Amino acid sequence: MRVLIASDTYHPHVNGASYFTQRLAHALAEAGHEVAVVAPGPSLSPTYTMHGRVHFYGVRSFPVFIVPKFRFVMPLISAISQRAASAIREFKPDVVHIQMHFPISRMVLREAARRGIPVVATNHFMPENLTHYLHLPDFITHQIHTWAWQDAARVLSKTRGVSAPTRTAGVMLEPWLKAEVPAISNGIDLKRFNPQNDPAPAKAQYALPDKPTLLFVGRLDKEKNIDVVLRAAALAKERADFHFVVAGHGAEQNKLQRLARELGIEDRVTFTGFVPDGLLASLYAAADCFVNAGIAELQCIVAMEAMATGLPIIGARAVALPELIHHEENGFLFKPGDHKELAGRLIEMFSDGAMRERMGQESLKIIAGHDLSLTLEAFEDFYRKAMLPA
Q1: CATH code assigned at 299
Q2: Quick one: residue 149, left, alpha or beta (phi over 0 = left, psi -120 to 50 = alpha)?
Q3: Are 3 and 36 a contacting pair, CB within 8 Å?
Q4: CA dist., res. 94 & res. 387, Å (int)
Q5: 226/290 Cα distance (integer angstroms)
Q6: How confident is the model at residue 68 (pLDDT cuts 50, 70, 90)?
């Protein structure tokens, strides 16, 4: 099967949709399919290269200096359309898989439809990821959300099928599409992320202390609510001895480092910055518990990686996190933004090693249903159905 994937975010962008697209493309190629990706390129000109076994057609893009490694594609219809058309013409896909509904995906969808090539989509979008930063009155925010969902539905309804990474994400989209949206997990490579990984490289690289460790991995952006975790850690420090590792970079990093100093826990927190891919599995292995206080997770790949390593999870009771975190089974859920409740959960988690071990084992059982091989089978079936005569 020849599969062309279109995405408005891709390597080296650091976000869940980018990682999903990268891993899906390479996994499909490893499974024997011919795979191409159309996404923002590394320069001001269109590019073509091979990323391993994956053909990569880069759309000309511009650097976003305030966001490291991120590049922005100007919504110039003609330029994107030309790159989409040339990629389709050269690669000759059997099926096209777009991610979300932004300019590159829109143009690839349009060019594929002109040629009668079947298109499917996966939605990674929710408006809250954008409006969270605007601090607008509720009625204006509601109007923006309505417009954004309507816009997404207009694009996605032109495909032969739309998936979402979780049932929660599907339910959010279904009223706008007026169609069923099946859940196909982002998937996790259980061979790469597992409890047998060696913690020593990460411990040495980041000079981590020899004590129980709480870990966050991800973008240091506002909707991740890492400040809530820092405030909870400051409250919990008198009754639970643990070290908090914050792995990643983003717009909030300086603010968070300053907050750690103000809370008097600077010596209890390590900010690693961006963690190279080769150290990531080791870093999970160096942890004893994973935390995610985010309020806009449609699945959460990093939580899945932590679970595959055998870690218990503490997370906000928001959006799709409860599909992964089964309260009091493989971790705890807390009210979003409530640092006092989170502090209590941290004290409970780091006061009972046997409970952490038991919850970690439960994480392994839950995550087994998200093995990447199952995700590949689901998408292969999704593509075959889309290729049937309409």
Answers
A1: 3.40.50.2000
A2: alpha
A3: yes
A4: 8
A5: 12
A6: low
- CA-nearest of 127, 131, 115 to 153 is 127
Asked whether the beta carbons of 163 and 120 are under 8 A apart, the reply is yes
Same domain for 148 and 284, yes or no, is no
Q: Which candidate, 136, 276, 290, places its Cα nearest to that of 226? A: 290
Q: Are residues 12 and 45 in the same domain?
A: yes
Beta strands 269-273 and 162-163 are unpaired
192 in any annotated domain: no
Task: Tell me the two tokens of residue 171.
Answer: 């339910």
**Average pLDDT for 157-162:** 97
CA distances from 362 to 45, 109, 191, 331 (A): 49, 41, 18, 9
The answer to whether 40 and 8 are in contact (CB under 8 A) is yes
Tens digit of each residue's pLDDT (9 = 90 or more) over 297-334:
999 999 999 999 999 999 999 999 999 999 999 999 99
What is the DSSP code (8-state) at residue 360? H
Q: What is the DSSP string of 206-229?
A: TT--SS-EEEEES---GGG-HHHH
CA-nearest of 204, 322, 314 to 270 is: 204
The structural domain count of the chain equals 2
Residue 193 lies in a domain: no
Asked, as a colleague might, if the bond just before 12 is cis with ω within 30 of 0, I would say yes
Token pair, residue 99, equals 């991610």
Dump pLDDT digits (tens) for 137-157: 888 888 988 999 999 999 999
Residues 6+ apart with CB under 8 A from 142: none
Residues 182 and 245 in one domain: no
Copy the structure tokens of residue 355: 């409970």
